[in-house]
Amino acid sequence: MSEDMQVVLIQKHATKPGLRGKIDAKCIECIYDPRQEGGWRQQVEKCTSLSCPLYTVRPRSSSAQAGGQSLQLGEV
Length: 76
Ligand code: SF4
Fold this sequence. Notes:
Oligomer: single chain
Shape: globular
Order of helices and strands: HHHH
Bound molecules: iron/sulfur cluster
Structural class: mainly alpha
Strand content: under 5%
């Protein structure tokens, strides 16, 4: 059941247009565990894999972005 929730979330985000949804989906696939505390965004926000190429563009809450760097996902 928990894995089903994760798959549904991944598909929901991966099918959005643009890169944002794909990045969100990858991070959900990578780190989100519905059985653990916090929603997917909170769990991704706590990611500590500094060497991951997606680390600086991983989804974060708006309050976390306000205190940190903000990245544009325009033309890539
Ligand atoms: S930023 Fe973190 S959660 Fe996202 S793909 Fe990389 S290691 Fe996984």
